[in-house]
Amino acid sequence: MGTLDTKSNLVLILDFGSQYTHLITRRIRALNVFTLCINGTSSLKTITDLNPKVIILSGGPHSVHVQNAPCFPPGFIEYVEANEIHVLGICYGLQLIVQKLGGEVRVGEIQEYGRMEIVVEKACGLFDSIKVGKKQNVWMSHGDEAVKLPDGFEVVARSKQGSVAAVENRGRRLYGLQYHPEVTHSEDGMETLRYFLVDLCGVVPGWSMEDVLDEELKVIQKMVGPEDHVICALSGGVDSAVAATLVHKAIGDRLHCVFVDNGLLRWKERERVMETLENELRLPVKCCDASERFLSKLKGVTEPEQKRKIIGSEFIAIFDEFAHDLEVKLGKKPAFLVQGTLYPDVIESCPPPGSGRTHSHTIKSHHNVGGLPKDMKLKLIEPLKLLFKDEVRKLGRIMSVPESFLKRHPFPGPGLAVRVPGDVTLENRLDILRMADEIFIQAIKDAGIYDSIWQAFAVFLPVLTVGVQGDQRTHRYAIGLRAVTSQDGMTADWYYFDQKFLVDVSTKICNEVASVNRVLLDITSKPPSTIEWE
């Protein structure tokens, strides 16, 4: 992704496990500069192949003193200096630079967490446009601190407590910030990043969704031969709709779409989605009813990761069969499968450096990332895998994808399987959830707040609770309600409903869903929770 001009301005982030790393990516893209994030312990060849103009070393939960603490690869410093690449270390990244170049990092006598005040000591480099003595509030999160700098480095800012807050060696193009400029609590953080990238490093802003569209069309046309056919799984959501439109724009009617009813859809989802796909997206799509097939495979399965893997494998098996049927019809078997994988899917499905795994600790496997079998016959086309959800919506608008698609709340690939903890096939749990979820979502739409919420849904809680309904004691299930606000799905806060709204929804669910006598509201942010329950 990215034109040659964009690639020459690539800002590469080496991720060492900070919870804020994805924010660095987003802040830089907001400056119209293309950036990629890869594992901090990636090989030097991986880094050199990307040919970055600037490299940022992220923060992380580790201490540089710990044995086998994650680090950039051997030869990294020599590579960046030989190629005149600017490097910015943030928090742990700063400490890595200091330690690896002969400085000293110790456990801080006074550890700094949260909002702190720093003072600029030298108006040069990172703070060239700021007067000496200027104070600003920033977000700190560190227990270690640099107490001795490598030769040639100088302190350009300190915290109010006297700890090093910013360092640089301008001659070697090496810089460091002990705080997190990417966090909104760092009041001048965005300007610091902009000044560093544009004024100091000479990065030229110019990356846009139009660039993404042009480049992805070229990539798809180069990947897919002139006689090749492609299949795409449509869910009726934003990601698959935009991905399908993009591929259709690239190869035309050699794209064949299929909508799979896996038995884990919401209330009347199949009918609604098929009508919308055919009437609004105007793509030829076949509906495959595989509900019995999926539910039989899930019977007795309670472990969340296993459920995701089973669903992912079954989807691929169905796509293989769909491809075989097309081969009979066309005389040529499709060779590619389109999926609407997004950047957060990739990030969450990969392990933090230092965990002993191949990349960051896996939060969960996405069925279109971690649930795919190794022997899959179809080759993947994932045109959105480097984009965040809001960027996908922008891309969709450029291609005139209907707003009804672009404004839909995200719906997980495994469907209601991740909203019914435990065995989804027991009793009528899925039907109970469908009814409660429909009441909740319709109430949100009726209240005119659907577009203000990133994602909303009901969760079936496999817990029987005591209630009193119709002057009788009842022993029925509980339903959880979840609604969050977010920009990209990587972090989220719960939506603050009006109290009357919650009273009305709770009453309606308990009155109309026979097996429910209790409704709970999930008020947990992400982190510490994920948005979905499984």
Structural description of this entry:
- The protein has 534 residues and is an alpha/beta fold.
- The chain has 16 helices and 18 strands.
- The chain has helices at 4-8, 21-29, 44-50, 76-82, 92-100, 189-200, 209-223, 238-251, 269-281, 291-298, 304-330, 343-348, 389-398, 403-406, 429-446, 499-512, and strands at residues 11-15, 35-39, 54-57, 86-90, 104-120, 135-148, 154-159, 164-169, 174-177, 230-233, 255-261, 285-289, 336-338, 379-381, 455-469, 472-485, 493-494, 516-521.
- It has a 9-stranded mixed sheet with strand order 2-1-3-4-9-8-7-5-6, sandwiched between helices. It has a 5-stranded parallel sheet with strand order 12-11-10-13-14, with helices on both faces. Strands 15, 16, 17 and 18 form a 4-stranded mixed sheet that branches.
- Helix 9 (269-281) links the parallel strand 11 (255-261) and strand 12 (285-289).
- Helix 8 (238-251) crosses helix 13 (389-398) and helix 10 (291-298) runs antiparallel to helix 11.
- The longest helix is centred in the middle third of the chain and has 27 residues, at 304-330.
- It is globular and about 75 Å long.
